[in-house]
Amino acid sequence: MATDQDAASVTTASQQPAQPVKPAGAPADDPTAPKKLSGAELKAKAKAEKAARRAQAKSSKETAKGEAAVSSSPGQLGPSAGEVKANKAKGKQDGTGTANKVTTIKAIAPFPVPEPKFTIPECFSHLSMPRRIPMTQADKDVHPAVLALGQQMATFALDESIARLKATLLAFKKVISSYTTPPGNTLARHLTPHVLNPQIDYLIACRPMSFSMGNAIRWLKLQVSKIDPDVVEHDAKKELCDSIDNFIQERINIANLVITQRAALRIEDGDVVLTFGWNSSVERAIIHAYTKIGRKFSVIIIDEPYDRRGQMLAKSLAAEGIRVTYCGDFGGLRSHVHQATTVILGAESMFNNGSMYARCGSCDVAVLAKQLGKQIYVLCETINITERVATDSLTYNEIDPERSSAASFRLLYDNTPDRYLSLVITELGSVQPTSVPDLLRKLEESN
């Protein structure tokens, strides 16, 4: 009686081509040895095993999804790192993988993507808003120093215009020092479009540039374009870095010193000086008048109810022995302005038509002070003066990302018309707000 194995052997033999007949006297085949398969049979067997593994893997995934969907803990994000490692190690010891072993895997929630708090109305879509960009999303050509600077600007760790300008120039100095001109290029033609522009684009994406930064970057690009292609790269880079150092010294450090001295002379004995928020130039001028000139006066600080940066100024002045009155909001603005004899404000920028671009709330203080007949002095470096013109607070501004909602949004700056200002104090002199264009002409002649 034939067995099933014999029947399978007969069937297989009938399907294969005839084998050569062994000569007489040749040793018989070992019945216990495994049967040798042909190439076609091996290929078919491998294909069948692969299909079986795919089907089993698919079944495993569907089982895991089903178990994850009915998991009892909705807050469970997934297995711990120890459990994952243990499962992997166990799979290796058993000699099995995920293809032939069903493992229960809980659903892992995707990384949460922060949704914008509000949508800017279309009529205000031209206004920008600082935002923190992950470093992993920055262009590969952005220098590490510029990456760190962009994060500081986006989070308002660096907020004042002059502070952002100085930090930007120092970061660009590091970029230039680490730059190497590729073969077949010149520094004057390659540095700006391929190296400086990616740094500038990243900073703008983090937060809109201040007017002083825009002026300084235009100056820097002009210096790069003036480099002779025949100059050795090392000497050209040194020349650019020295130019940046001289720019910082002349247009920032010395300018601050001159403005401090000139503004301090505007303070007399017995004056009541009123200021708004915090500004580094205003702080230096008040301290210089008290400690270096020896004037005896008091200070009133009106602070905005959001950032409360005026508290820093109040602590700094009080530490020098100056009598300070601090008001945390605009509730007592009229009475405080009525008591003041002099109003000193710090500007982020001055427009070509003489209007002042400053922290939101400065316009309210200036308008009321002018109505009450007070002198309003504005401290502003010439690097902060722009050729642009603005007649309102919506032409150029920034939106506060932290204090805006779907119903409303807050602007970081406001615009004060020239008729509410008495004098603009710069390192080139003290001029009327309407004479700001004359300062621009002086700067163009000096350049």
From TrEMBL:
Residues 42-52 have a biased composition (Basic and acidic residues). GO terms for molecular function: translation initiation factor activity. Keywords: Cytoplasm, Initiation factor, Protein biosynthesis. It is found in: Cytoplasm, Cytosol. The keyword tRNA-binding does not apply. Residues 1-98 are annotated as: Disordered. One of its GO terms (cellular component) is cytosol. Component of the translation initiation factor 2B (eIF2B) complex which is a heterodecamer of two sets of five different subunits: alpha, beta, gamma, delta and epsilon. Subunits alpha, beta and delta comprise a regulatory subcomplex and subunits epsilon and gamma comprise a catalytic subcomplex. Within the complex, the hexameric regulatory complex resides at the center, with the two heterodimeric catalytic subcomplexes bound on opposite sides. This is Translation initiation factor eIF2B subunit delta. It comes from Monosporascus ibericus. The lineage of its organism: Eukaryota, Fungi, Dikarya, Ascomycota, Pezizomycotina.
